[in-house]
Fold:
Amino acid sequence: MGSTERIRNVAKRVAKWARAGHQMVVVPSAMSGETNRLLGLAKELAPPKQTPDYERELDMLAATGEQASSALLAIALQSEGLQSVSYAGWQVPIRTDSAYTKARIESIDDARVRADLQAGKVVIVTGFQGADAAGNITTLGRGGSDTSAVAVAAAMKAQECLIYTDVDGVYTTDPRVVPEARRLQTVSFEEMLEMASMGSKVLQIRSVEFAGKYRVPLRVLSSFTPWDIDIDVEANSGTLITFEEDEHMEQAVVSGIAFNRDEAKISVLGVPDKPGIAYQILGAIAQANIDVDVIIQNLSKDGKTDFSFTVNRGDFTKAMDLLRSNVLPGLGAQDVVGDTKICKVSIVGIGMRSHVGIASKMFGVLSEEGINIQMISTSEIKTSVVIDEKYMELAVRALHKAFDLDRAAG
Ligand code: ASP
Ligand code: MG
Structure:
């Protein structure tokens, strides 16, 4: 919602659904660019600090973006002739823990919202925010309105949660990298979870986790379609995230290719191969609150081994410094080296459960392109490789083609 004109369009769309007999709770996020603008103001006054005092105020500040868009939408709905009321998170209340800037929803009281729906109102609940037990305003992390919407849908036992966003659904891969990428009509919840955790930015990962936990049927669709398109067309557009495998109509073995440039690789070389090594290295990393993704340990030679793992690029320097100063000396390792010019490419599909040879086909495709694989990790429904960043687009395109993703499944 970038302007009052866009807000009026949203109101017209909501009015269309309301007039078709639907009870609705609408969860807006801030007007576009607003959250960045607000956080930028704080930065002008004081550099970001990870202290509770500073982060509490960031939440106080950022939450105003959603409060404004929610009130504006209620006004627009009223001017469309509907009854509408908006609530900030703390008014519902949406109860969260106290982890400012990345709070988790603990509970939602549905009484107030339910009473308004009964009274024929369209209820608007701010996205992205809640309040902790002491009444402090909290926010749910960037993109958190998705999670608010799913959580409200779960609390209200809604028929479906529609997420209107700036893409028209979930694609086989990013169309900016592969123009032949196709929109998926359905994708299983587990595949969506893998794609979200690997950097597909369509939905905040917590919203997908929430949808899975409470089995909220979730549809991702475009906020750019004209508000007056046929309601049945709109109701069937976008991508539906499903829970039953047999509902998963497109039976391709691989459903999508995800990629992620946000990681960096760290290798600790010449580590004595004895019990407790992984714990000494990764324990220190975990204690510094750094997430680790792919991990490999080489076969040992002469009692020594190399130990490699990936972290978020933003944590790379911190992790390297920590290893050099605190871990390496006590470990008896030779050296620690790092590489930020890597990327992770993954194939995802629940079909991988029942088909063999999918991972080896992936390795074959990469080998034909002359792309060296540095690390591999697998789960039941995905295979990921870490490769040189400069081959990312080539790898994604070749895999997309090899797994027939440019062709509609028959
Ligand atoms: N306004 C918040 C953000 O920009 C939440 C959201 O848009 O989902 O991150
Ligand atoms: Mg968003």
Summary: Residues 29, 143, 145-146 surround magnesium ion (ligand 2) (CB under 6 Å). The chain has two domains: 1-156, 256-402. The chain is about 35% helix and 25% strand.
